[in-house]
Amino acid sequence: MNTRTISGRLRGAAVLALLPLLTLTACGSGDTGCTAAVGAQASPVPTDDPVAAVRKVDSAAALLPADVREAGKLKVGSSIGFPPGAYYPNGTDKAAAGQDIDLADAVAKVLGVELERQDASFETILPALGSGKYDFGTGNFGVTAERLKTIDFVTYINDGQGFAVKQGNAELKGKVTDLTQLCGLTIGTGAGTTFEATLTAQKGVCAKAGKKPYDVKVYSENAATLTALQQGRIDVIMSTINGLRYQAAQPASQTAFLGEFHRLDVGFAFKKGSPLTKAFQAAVDELIKDGTYTRILKKWGTSASAIDASRINPPEHT
Predict the structure, then answer these.
(1) I need a surface site. Which of 21, 170, 199, 282 has the fewest CB within 10 A?
(2) CA 257 vs CA 19, 221, 242: distances in Å
(3) DSSP letter at 141?
(4) What's the pLDDT score for residue 171?
């Protein structure tokens, strides 16, 4: 396991996954080695600020527990990965940006509270909710039946699972609709994600089909995953629909998005039984009603992921 700090991992992810890369060079050892970008140029950051006009809504704020209303603060564990979800457009010493950042900030304004954002690696956030380290978590967390056993969700978009390959890939050109299409290939994905869980749970499909099994390589950094694809150490990436679509739109990434595989509701994550869920649901619904929600998704190019109303703990999509 890579021994670099969380901040180091996030910095690596910000360099590669967030910027159009002209040249990639790997350093260090192992599949999660560090990555440097040569000649990279920052992607333009949308200038619209739909959050600025958001105001407190007393009816939603009244749903918060009294101690939270009195304190006026909430701690959020935030996974900063890559656009359009959450990333560092100007370096880790500057503010994060992205769809998840805007939506969390807008919800906080509706509820009349301030957010104390703490960056954390994706795989550590959900386990930390039960201990009270964070009041809630963000990181494009998909709602699954397994997670619903220990986590409460308040939904805010509909995203899900997709695949991408290096441009010119001769083995996978069309949409992946069945995991047997990946037999014999090496798939790269993120640690602690629904993608890792899906690939692990279905690993026997190739043997049943009389084919060579696929291999799964798990990375703690989006940067390392993309580097592995560019260098031919993996054949395909499994990640978020919106993230892979955004990445493929950056010419220097040299990736091709293969389409949607499985849709999932995505939500703010809370410890089971959290008293915050009804207030957050009401806040998301207020943002949908007043048009702020539509503006945020338009800003980040994710309008196709819009929902009509927020839900608490919906069942996993089948």
Answers:
(1) 170
(2) 17, 19, 10
(3) -
(4) 86
Query: Is the sign of the CA dihedral 270, 161, 47, 16 positive or negative?
Result: positive
Helix (H, G, I), strand (E, B) or coil at 96: coil
Residue 226: which of 90, 79, 31, 45 has the closest Cα? Answer: 31
How do 151-166 and 236-240 pair as beta strands? antiparallel
Both structure tokens of 294:
């539509």
Q: Are strands 151-166 and 255-271 parallel, antiparallel or unpaired?
A: antiparallel
Q: What is the edge-to-edge ordering of all strands in the sheet holding 151-166?
A: 114-119, 73-78, 136-138, 255-271, 151-166, 236-240, 186-190, 215-219
Q: Find all residues with CB under 8 Å of 222, minimum gap 6, and list them.
A: 13, 16, 17, 81, 82, 190, 239, 243
Strand ranges, E, within 79-174: 114-119, 136-138, 151-166
List, for the chain, all residue ranges whose pLDDT scores fall below the cut of 70.
1-44
